Amino acid sequence: MTPTTGGDGGERGVWTTVPGRDAGRQPAWVWAVPAAAALAVTAPWLDRTALWEDELATLSAATRSWSDLARLVRNVDGVHATYYALMHVWTGVFGTSAVSLRLPSVLATAVAAALLAVLGARLAGRRTGVVAGLLLAVVPSVSQYADDARPYALVLAVAVGATLALVDALERPGRWRWVRYAVLVALLGALQVTATLLVLAHACILGTGAVRTRAAAGFVAALASAGLVVAPVAALGSLQQAQIAWIRPPTPARLLDLPPGLFVSASVMAAVLGAAATVALRAGPVRRVAVPWAVVPAVALVALSFTVVPLTSPRYLLFTVPGWLLVAAAATADRRSAVALVAVVLVLGLPAQTRLRGDVWYDQPDYRRVAAVLDERARPGDAVAMTAWAPLRYRLGLRAYLSPRTRLDDVFAGEPAAAAATLDDLPCTPAVDCLGTPPRLWIGCWRGCGDPLAGLAPDQAAAVRAAGYRRVEVWPVPAHGSLTLWTR
Hints:
5-stranded mixed beta sheet, 5 strands
């Protein structure tokens, strides 16, 4: 595999002369079929599940003014500043419904499937490319984040695009190709700092190929340029580690849970890794690109989790899934085996796909049900006492789903989140003075609702008891919690 000289006068890369590879421009169906499949799997379910805690954080951040958003990210969630800025623009045009909030992730997933198909075709032929793209469309973990108003699907698309840009720059070196690669790596890090671990895999790709000095220099220059963008984001994130305090330190048992979590289905993981194992040790461009992509960032993330800060959450490694799928797709020898592999992954993933499309995610309250009860039964002058504790975000959930005609005084809401540069409103204190004397009070509870006041802070619950309120009626909220009506 000796580099050759291309017609543009530059060096040709190490994959140019691989027999049977479709090196030129791909026909539209190569990328259109996987993109359409990704849309078919994800788009119909955009509004199936109620917004969950982190999506409500996106809603809270994206709907602020630019100055309030800047103050927020200096205080909390600075690593998501780029995503929040993009969503601020998006919601300004398309609104703040659940469908609108999640649509960028669905579109990004379709782009990722299309780009992976093109990359696979470039490396190992059109069948491999299409199969890889289709696998991306049907893997449950990809569907999970495609219907999620968070940055992970966008990171997935940018990671595939950056890898394709690297292969393009190595095959046909040129200044603008390295500029494109640098821009994509910068965007990758701006959306998710830990995703820049992908460049370690890219360095391995260069290290295992016959890459000349000019290409190596272009790679280093691109990374240096991207680092100017990523470094401030990483520095800000290092000062705001409270946002990832929920990730527990790695243990052998937790590390064993990471691969199934990466696919959201142990059976899907077994099918993909089983197919990939037949190719992973085989020499060729797919192994050279896809194996480092799948393995190196994961190893680096685990190492950081042991030495710096725990980061071992499957969502932070979603961008490595295309590497596994590309290797698995390369294992198909003909059309029949290609169809069989996609069908097996699709069928094995159906239970997980069904589970992901329930009413709520991650054991969250179903804010839509709570809002429906209030819309139907609330009266003028009613008040509501909903906890603002993270991670429940009851206030944000109600604001997302309550009808504009339902006006309730939120008695324990203090300084607004935008003014406080936080994601939630601060609590009003002292609670006994904030409560006032509303004739009817609605109180929400999440889990453990044997005591309907358990969802309130202790001082808030004490204020309700001292004011002489009595419980009148209880509405269970599927799948967790309850809503209770109290009168004086």
